[in-house]
Amino acid sequence: MEADEHGMIRYVISVNNTEQRVRPEDIGSTIIEFLKNVAVRNLTSPVTKVVMSVPAEFDQLQRNYTRKAANNAGLEVFRIINEPTAAALAYGLHTKPSLSNVLVIDLGGGTLDVSLLNVQGGMFLTQGMAGNNILGGEDFNERLHSYLKTVIETRHKQSLTDKEDLQTLRLAVEDAKINLTASDHTFLSIHLHSLGKNSLFQERITRSKFEELNSDLFQKVIDPIQTVLKATNLPPEEIDEIVLVGGSTRIPKVRQLIHKFFNKKPNTNIDPELAVAMGVSVQAGIIGGMWPLTVSAVELPTRVKKIQIN
What we know:
Elements: E1 2-3, E2 9-15, E3 18-22, H1 24-43, E4 49-54, H2 60-72, E5 76-82, H3 83-90, E6 101-107, E7 112-120, E8 123-132, H4 137-156, H5 163-179, E9 185-191, E10 200-206, H6 207-213, H7 215-219, H8 222-231, E11 241-245, H9 252-262, H10 275-287, E12 298-299, E13 306-308
Parallel strand pairs: 4-5, 6-11, 8-12, 8-13
Antiparallel strand pairs: 1-2, 2-3, 6-7, 7-8, 9-10
Helix pairs in contact: 1-2, 3-10, 4-5
Protein backbone atom coordinates (compact mmCIF):
# COMPACT_ATOMS: atom_id res chain seq x y z
CA MET A 1 0.00 0.00 0.00
CA GLU A 2 1.25 3.46 -0.87
CA ALA A 3 0.09 7.03 -1.47
CA ASP A 4 -0.12 8.48 -4.96
CA GLU A 5 0.96 12.00 -5.96
CA HIS A 6 -2.29 13.38 -4.51
CA GLY A 7 -1.95 11.55 -1.19
CA MET A 8 -4.67 9.00 -2.06
CA ILE A 9 -4.22 5.35 -1.11
CA ARG A 10 -3.47 2.74 -3.74
CA TYR A 11 -2.33 -0.88 -3.61
CA VAL A 12 0.70 -2.39 -5.29
CA ILE A 13 -0.07 -5.91 -6.52
CA SER A 14 1.66 -8.46 -8.73
CA VAL A 15 -0.26 -9.90 -11.69
CA ASN A 16 1.58 -12.44 -13.86
CA ASN A 17 4.89 -11.18 -12.45
CA THR A 18 3.95 -7.63 -13.45
CA GLU A 19 3.60 -4.93 -10.82
CA GLN A 20 0.32 -3.03 -10.97
CA ARG A 21 -1.15 -0.20 -8.91
CA VAL A 22 -4.85 -0.22 -8.14
CA ARG A 23 -7.07 2.05 -6.10
CA PRO A 24 -9.68 0.91 -3.54
CA GLU A 25 -12.51 1.92 -5.87
CA ASP A 26 -10.99 -0.30 -8.59
CA ILE A 27 -11.15 -3.29 -6.26
CA GLY A 28 -14.65 -2.28 -5.21
CA SER A 29 -15.67 -2.05 -8.85
CA THR A 30 -14.42 -5.59 -9.52
CA ILE A 31 -16.46 -6.94 -6.59
CA ILE A 32 -19.58 -5.02 -7.64
CA GLU A 33 -19.22 -6.25 -11.22
CA PHE A 34 -19.03 -9.83 -9.95
CA LEU A 35 -22.21 -9.32 -7.91
CA LYS A 36 -23.92 -7.74 -10.91
CA ASN A 37 -23.08 -10.78 -13.02
CA VAL A 38 -24.48 -13.08 -10.31
CA ALA A 39 -27.71 -11.07 -10.34
CA VAL A 40 -27.91 -11.20 -14.14
CA ARG A 41 -27.50 -14.99 -14.12
CA ASN A 42 -30.23 -15.42 -11.51
CA LEU A 43 -32.66 -12.88 -12.96
CA THR A 44 -31.91 -13.72 -16.61
CA SER A 45 -32.30 -10.04 -17.43
CA PRO A 46 -29.97 -7.04 -17.61
CA VAL A 47 -29.06 -5.18 -14.41
CA THR A 48 -28.17 -1.54 -15.04
CA LYS A 49 -29.35 0.37 -11.96
CA VAL A 50 -28.65 -0.08 -8.27
CA VAL A 51 -29.40 1.16 -4.76
CA MET A 52 -26.45 0.80 -2.39
CA SER A 53 -25.83 0.99 1.34
CA VAL A 54 -22.76 2.24 3.20
CA PRO A 55 -21.74 2.57 6.87
CA ALA A 56 -23.53 5.51 8.47
CA GLU A 57 -20.23 7.25 9.28
CA PHE A 58 -19.15 7.42 5.61
CA ASP A 59 -18.49 11.03 4.59
CA GLN A 60 -19.40 12.51 1.21
CA LEU A 61 -16.02 11.66 -0.32
CA GLN A 62 -16.35 7.99 0.65
CA ARG A 63 -19.88 7.91 -0.72
CA ASN A 64 -18.71 9.47 -3.97
CA TYR A 65 -16.01 6.83 -4.39
CA THR A 66 -18.57 4.11 -3.65
CA ARG A 67 -20.74 5.55 -6.41
CA LYS A 68 -17.70 5.71 -8.72
CA ALA A 69 -16.95 2.03 -8.10
CA ALA A 70 -20.50 1.10 -9.11
CA ASN A 71 -20.39 3.37 -12.16
CA ASN A 72 -17.15 1.71 -13.28
CA ALA A 73 -18.93 -1.64 -13.01
CA GLY A 74 -21.56 -0.38 -15.45
CA LEU A 75 -24.25 0.51 -12.93
CA GLU A 76 -26.23 3.70 -12.45
CA VAL A 77 -26.58 4.46 -8.73
CA PHE A 78 -30.10 5.63 -7.91
CA ARG A 79 -29.48 6.14 -4.22
CA ILE A 80 -26.98 5.45 -1.43
CA ILE A 81 -28.49 4.88 2.01
CA ASN A 82 -26.99 4.20 5.43
CA GLU A 83 -26.81 0.58 6.58
CA PRO A 84 -28.77 1.20 9.83
CA THR A 85 -31.52 2.87 7.81
CA ALA A 86 -31.59 -0.10 5.43
CA ALA A 87 -31.98 -2.47 8.38
CA ALA A 88 -34.85 -0.39 9.76
CA LEU A 89 -36.49 -0.44 6.32
CA ALA A 90 -36.25 -4.23 6.23
CA TYR A 91 -38.13 -4.43 9.52
CA GLY A 92 -40.72 -1.95 8.22
CA LEU A 93 -40.19 0.32 11.21
CA HIS A 94 -40.82 3.48 9.17
CA THR A 95 -44.46 2.40 8.78
CA LYS A 96 -45.13 2.20 12.53
CA PRO A 97 -46.37 5.60 13.76
CA SER A 98 -45.87 4.69 17.43
CA LEU A 99 -42.09 4.36 17.01
CA SER A 100 -39.71 7.21 17.68
CA ASN A 101 -36.29 5.88 18.75
CA VAL A 102 -34.72 2.85 17.07
CA LEU A 103 -31.37 1.38 18.10
CA VAL A 104 -29.54 -0.63 15.43
CA ILE A 105 -26.84 -2.96 16.76
CA ASP A 106 -24.57 -4.34 14.03
CA LEU A 107 -22.13 -7.00 15.22
CA GLY A 108 -20.32 -8.77 12.40
CA GLY A 109 -17.11 -10.69 11.98
CA GLY A 110 -14.74 -7.93 12.99
CA THR A 111 -16.59 -4.77 14.01
CA LEU A 112 -19.41 -3.54 16.23
CA ASP A 113 -21.50 -0.51 15.25
CA VAL A 114 -24.39 0.99 17.19
CA SER A 115 -26.64 3.65 15.68
CA LEU A 116 -29.57 5.51 17.17
CA LEU A 117 -32.20 6.50 14.62
CA ASN A 118 -35.03 8.92 15.22
CA VAL A 119 -38.09 8.09 13.12
CA GLN A 120 -40.68 10.76 12.41
CA GLY A 121 -43.29 10.58 9.69
CA GLY A 122 -41.32 8.04 7.68
CA MET A 123 -38.11 10.08 7.95
CA PHE A 124 -34.91 8.69 9.47
CA LEU A 125 -32.39 10.86 11.26
CA THR A 126 -29.20 9.42 12.75
CA GLN A 127 -28.94 10.87 16.26
CA GLY A 128 -25.85 9.05 17.51
CA MET A 129 -23.22 6.49 16.52
CA ALA A 130 -20.60 4.54 18.45
CA GLY A 131 -18.63 1.40 17.78
CA ASN A 132 -15.68 -0.86 18.32
CA ASN A 133 -13.70 -1.67 15.17
CA ILE A 134 -11.77 -4.52 16.81
CA LEU A 135 -14.65 -6.55 18.23
CA GLY A 136 -16.59 -9.20 16.36
CA GLY A 137 -17.11 -12.85 15.60
CA GLU A 138 -13.47 -13.47 14.72
CA ASP A 139 -12.46 -12.36 18.21
CA PHE A 140 -14.90 -14.85 19.75
CA ASN A 141 -13.47 -17.54 17.47
CA GLU A 142 -9.93 -16.70 18.51
CA ARG A 143 -10.73 -17.33 22.18
CA LEU A 144 -12.13 -20.79 21.42
CA HIS A 145 -9.31 -21.52 18.98
CA SER A 146 -6.68 -20.65 21.59
CA TYR A 147 -8.41 -22.78 24.22
CA LEU A 148 -8.66 -25.84 21.95
CA LYS A 149 -5.08 -25.43 20.79
CA THR A 150 -3.97 -25.64 24.42
CA VAL A 151 -6.15 -28.72 24.97
CA ILE A 152 -4.59 -30.41 21.93
CA GLU A 153 -1.04 -29.57 22.96
CA THR A 154 -1.63 -30.78 26.52
CA ARG A 155 -3.31 -33.99 25.42
CA HIS A 156 -0.75 -34.88 22.74
CA LYS A 157 2.27 -33.42 24.55
CA GLN A 158 3.49 -31.50 21.52
CA SER A 159 3.13 -28.02 20.07
CA LEU A 160 0.62 -27.41 17.30
CA THR A 161 2.39 -25.16 14.81
CA ASP A 162 1.52 -26.67 11.42
CA LYS A 163 -0.27 -23.98 9.39
CA GLU A 164 -2.61 -26.42 7.68
CA ASP A 165 -3.64 -27.97 10.99
CA LEU A 166 -4.17 -24.56 12.57
CA GLN A 167 -6.41 -23.60 9.66
CA THR A 168 -8.34 -26.87 10.00
CA LEU A 169 -8.90 -26.05 13.66
CA ARG A 170 -9.91 -22.50 12.80
CA LEU A 171 -12.59 -23.70 10.36
CA ALA A 172 -13.88 -26.23 12.91
CA VAL A 173 -14.11 -23.47 15.52
CA GLU A 174 -16.29 -21.38 13.20
CA ASP A 175 -18.63 -24.35 12.69
CA ALA A 176 -18.73 -24.99 16.44
CA LYS A 177 -19.64 -21.36 17.17
CA ILE A 178 -22.49 -21.50 14.67
CA ASN A 179 -23.76 -24.81 16.11
CA LEU A 180 -23.73 -23.35 19.62
CA THR A 181 -26.22 -20.67 18.63
CA ALA A 182 -28.88 -23.38 18.33
CA SER A 183 -27.62 -26.04 20.75
CA ASP A 184 -26.14 -26.04 24.24
CA HIS A 185 -23.28 -28.27 23.09
CA THR A 186 -21.52 -29.48 19.96
CA PHE A 187 -18.89 -32.06 19.03
CA LEU A 188 -15.69 -31.19 17.23
CA SER A 189 -13.93 -33.95 15.30
CA ILE A 190 -10.95 -33.17 13.07
CA HIS A 191 -7.79 -34.83 11.75
CA LEU A 192 -4.54 -32.99 12.44
CA HIS A 193 -1.85 -34.69 10.36
CA SER A 194 1.07 -33.20 12.29
CA LEU A 195 0.04 -35.28 15.32
CA GLY A 196 1.09 -38.48 13.56
CA LYS A 197 -0.72 -41.73 14.38
CA ASN A 198 -3.06 -40.05 16.84
CA SER A 199 -4.20 -37.49 14.30
CA LEU A 200 -7.88 -37.55 15.29
CA PHE A 201 -8.89 -34.87 17.76
CA GLN A 202 -12.37 -34.96 19.25
CA GLU A 203 -13.84 -32.66 21.86
CA ARG A 204 -17.25 -31.85 23.29
CA ILE A 205 -17.75 -28.09 23.53
CA THR A 206 -20.54 -26.55 25.58
CA ARG A 207 -22.19 -23.21 25.09
CA SER A 208 -21.37 -22.35 28.70
CA LYS A 209 -17.66 -22.92 28.01
CA PHE A 210 -17.81 -20.72 24.92
CA GLU A 211 -19.52 -18.01 26.96
CA GLU A 212 -16.95 -18.34 29.74
CA LEU A 213 -14.06 -17.93 27.30
CA ASN A 214 -15.64 -14.79 25.84
CA SER A 215 -17.34 -13.31 28.90
CA ASP A 216 -15.33 -10.07 28.89
CA LEU A 217 -15.74 -9.61 25.12
CA PHE A 218 -19.49 -10.12 25.30
CA GLN A 219 -19.71 -7.47 28.00
CA LYS A 220 -17.95 -5.03 25.66
CA VAL A 221 -20.95 -5.18 23.34
CA ILE A 222 -22.80 -3.01 25.86
CA ASP A 223 -20.14 -0.25 25.92
CA PRO A 224 -21.04 1.53 22.65
CA ILE A 225 -24.74 1.15 23.48
CA GLN A 226 -24.18 3.07 26.71
CA THR A 227 -22.05 5.62 24.85
CA VAL A 228 -24.76 6.33 22.27
CA LEU A 229 -27.45 6.68 24.93
CA LYS A 230 -25.27 9.02 26.98
CA ALA A 231 -24.40 11.15 23.93
CA THR A 232 -28.08 11.53 23.04
CA ASN A 233 -29.33 11.92 26.63
CA LEU A 234 -31.72 9.01 26.28
CA PRO A 235 -32.44 6.44 29.01
CA PRO A 236 -32.72 2.78 27.89
CA GLU A 237 -36.49 2.73 28.46
CA GLU A 238 -37.01 5.36 25.75
CA ILE A 239 -35.72 3.04 23.03
CA ASP A 240 -38.82 1.82 21.21
CA GLU A 241 -37.22 -0.85 19.03
CA ILE A 242 -33.91 -2.72 19.04
CA VAL A 243 -32.79 -4.06 15.66
CA LEU A 244 -30.05 -6.67 15.31
CA VAL A 245 -27.75 -6.81 12.28
CA GLY A 246 -24.79 -9.10 11.57
CA GLY A 247 -24.23 -12.81 12.10
CA SER A 248 -22.69 -12.42 15.55
CA THR A 249 -25.96 -11.06 16.94
CA ARG A 250 -27.25 -14.63 16.65
CA ILE A 251 -25.09 -15.60 19.64
CA PRO A 252 -27.53 -16.28 22.51
CA LYS A 253 -25.37 -14.57 25.15
CA VAL A 254 -25.21 -11.38 23.08
CA ARG A 255 -29.00 -11.33 22.81
CA GLN A 256 -29.35 -12.06 26.54
CA LEU A 257 -27.10 -9.15 27.50
CA ILE A 258 -28.99 -6.75 25.23
CA HIS A 259 -32.32 -8.01 26.59
CA LYS A 260 -31.12 -7.58 30.17
CA PHE A 261 -29.77 -4.06 29.55
CA PHE A 262 -32.99 -2.76 28.01
CA ASN A 263 -35.40 -5.09 29.82
CA LYS A 264 -36.80 -5.60 26.34
CA LYS A 265 -36.28 -8.28 23.72
CA PRO A 266 -34.57 -7.15 20.50
CA ASN A 267 -36.44 -7.57 17.24
CA THR A 268 -35.33 -10.86 15.67
CA ASN A 269 -37.99 -11.27 12.98
CA ILE A 270 -35.47 -11.00 10.13
CA ASP A 271 -32.22 -12.86 9.48
CA PRO A 272 -29.62 -10.41 10.86
CA GLU A 273 -27.19 -11.25 8.07
CA LEU A 274 -29.77 -10.31 5.42
CA ALA A 275 -31.40 -7.30 7.10
CA VAL A 276 -29.33 -4.63 5.34
CA ALA A 277 -29.59 -6.31 1.93
CA MET A 278 -33.35 -6.71 2.34
CA GLY A 279 -33.72 -3.05 3.31
CA VAL A 280 -31.76 -1.92 0.27
CA SER A 281 -33.98 -4.16 -1.86
CA VAL A 282 -37.08 -2.51 -0.37
CA GLN A 283 -35.66 0.93 -1.21
CA ALA A 284 -34.87 -0.22 -4.75
CA GLY A 285 -38.39 -1.59 -5.08
CA ILE A 286 -39.86 1.73 -3.97
CA ILE A 287 -37.79 3.69 -6.48
CA GLY A 288 -38.57 1.19 -9.23
CA GLY A 289 -42.29 1.39 -8.55
CA MET A 290 -42.60 -2.20 -7.32
CA TRP A 291 -43.57 -1.18 -3.76
CA PRO A 292 -46.37 1.22 -2.87
CA LEU A 293 -45.09 4.69 -2.02
CA THR A 294 -46.84 4.45 1.35
CA VAL A 295 -43.93 2.34 2.63
CA SER A 296 -41.25 4.72 1.39
CA ALA A 297 -38.83 6.40 3.78
CA VAL A 298 -36.72 9.54 3.62
CA GLU A 299 -33.23 9.63 5.09
CA LEU A 300 -32.07 12.98 6.43
CA PRO A 301 -28.36 13.89 6.14
CA THR A 302 -26.14 12.60 8.95
CA ARG A 303 -24.35 15.31 10.89
CA VAL A 304 -23.16 13.36 13.93
CA LYS A 305 -19.73 11.77 14.24
CA LYS A 306 -19.16 8.18 15.25
CA ILE A 307 -17.60 7.67 18.69
CA GLN A 308 -14.96 4.96 18.51
CA ILE A 309 -14.51 2.65 21.51
CA ASN A 310 -11.61 0.19 21.26
